[in-house]
């Protein structure tokens, strides 16, 4: 038997590249967010084959992502049919990190009956009259559902801390409350996947400028983003602390390099697929005596 072709070898290696995603992207206990790390495309087929032209590598990565999403869709159908377990995907990141784009990419082929995206904006007066987790608890996934949080309860230990709305002692109390909240969710059947989309400050600058320059995307530009950008370093430190304080076996954090949108999608598809594959999902058993039924 001859050696496999170069194309076959590349395809095999690409499939291996997206294994062990949870281990490879798991946040370190001593997490330090570095600008250079936002560019690391560790799952790209070009990492294994540096001679590949960028355009070819991108096309192959997009194809691979599509294959993973198809497998996610099949497992999500079993999750929905089984109607027992729940999945919560938390997406956090700086402005323009790609939270909206991730939701579109991951779930465009998935049955919408079993998926729900929630975007947490500035709290309303009614929400502020309750504890900060009140509005979040109302949106957690129900049995058979994948819920995606576009921003989340972590805003209450990020922007509130950077803007001076809470002091360090209150921040520490909230870390403990979040740990307890997420432990309760997992003990009642929710699998939690928390992803920090890691982009560099320069990448954010380029994306904000693109919004300004494109008349069809200017609606997405918020002048407040410029002011928040001035506090970049403070936000990075706040993210490091929040991730380290809440990165637990039952509710792990994953740090995904997101300067490349293509690699971001490939990495998150790999993470989500690996998570679903370890949930023992299957279709419910049929009626015990289907032979007794006929359709007239």
How are the secondary structure elements laid out?
Layout: H1 6-17, H2 21-25, H3 45-48, H4 54-82, E1 86-93, H5 99-107, E2 115-119, H6 125-128, H7 134-137, E3 146-150, H8 159-162, H9 168-187, E4 190-198, H10 201-213, H11 224-229, H12 232-246, E5 253-257, H13 261-277
Parallel strand pairs: 1-3, 1-4, 2-3, 4-5
The percent of residues in helical segments reads 40-55%
Count of DSSP H/I helices:
13
CATH class call:
Alpha Beta
**What is the molecular shape?**
globular
Quaternary state of this entry equals single chain
pLDDT < 50 runs, ≥5 residues? 10-15
Order of helices and strands: HHHHEHEHHEHHEHHHEH
Q: Count structural domains.
A: 1
Specify the biggest β-sheet: 5 strands, parallel
Q: How large is the radius of gyration?
A: 21 Å
Strand arrangement, major sheet:
2-3-1-4-5
Mean pLDDT: 92
Q: Could you say what the CATH topology is called?
A: Rossmann fold
Helix-strand makeup class: alpha/beta
CATH architecture: 3-Layer(aba) Sandwich
Q: DSSP strand (E) fraction?
A: 5-15%
Features:
Rossmann fold; globular; single chain; alpha/beta; 11% strand; 296 residues
């Amino acid at each position: 038997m001859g050696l496999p072709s170069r194309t076959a070898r590349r395809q095999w290696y690409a499939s291996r590249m997206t294994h062990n995603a949870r281990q490879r992207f798991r946040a370190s206990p001593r997490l330090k967010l570095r600008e250079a790390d936002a560019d690391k495309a560790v799952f790209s087929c070009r990492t294994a084959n540096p001679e590949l032209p960028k355009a070819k590598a991108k096309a192959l990565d997009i194809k691979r992502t599509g294959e993973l999403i198809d497998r996610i869709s099949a497992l999500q159908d079993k999750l929905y049919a089984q109607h027992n377990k729940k999945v919560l995907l938390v997406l956090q990141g700086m402005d323009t990190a790609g939270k909206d784009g991730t939701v579109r990419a991951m779930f465009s082929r998935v049955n919408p009956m079993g998926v729900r995206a929630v975007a947490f904006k500035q709290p309303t007066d009614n929400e502020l009259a309750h504890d900060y987790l009140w509005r979040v608890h109302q949106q957690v996934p129900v049995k058979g559902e994948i819920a995606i949080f576009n921003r989340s309860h972590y805003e209450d230990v990020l922007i509130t801390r950077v803007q001076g709305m809470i002091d360090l002692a209150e921040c520490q109390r909230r870390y403990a409350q979040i740990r307890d909240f997420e432990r309760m969710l997992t003990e009642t059947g929710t699998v939690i996947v928390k992803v920090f989309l890691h982009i560099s400050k320069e990448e954010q600058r380029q994306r904000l400028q693109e919004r300004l320059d494109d008349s069809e995307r200017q609606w997405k530009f918020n002048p407040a983003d410029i002011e928040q950008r001035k506090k970049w370093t403070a936000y990075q430190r706040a993210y490091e602390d929040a991730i380290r304080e809440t990165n637990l076996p039952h509710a792990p954090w994953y740090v995904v390099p997101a300067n490349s949108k293509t690699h971001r999608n490939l990495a998150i598809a790999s993470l989500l697929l690996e998570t679903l594959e370890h949930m023992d999902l299957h279709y419910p058993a049929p009626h015990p005596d289907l032979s007794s039924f006929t359709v007239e």
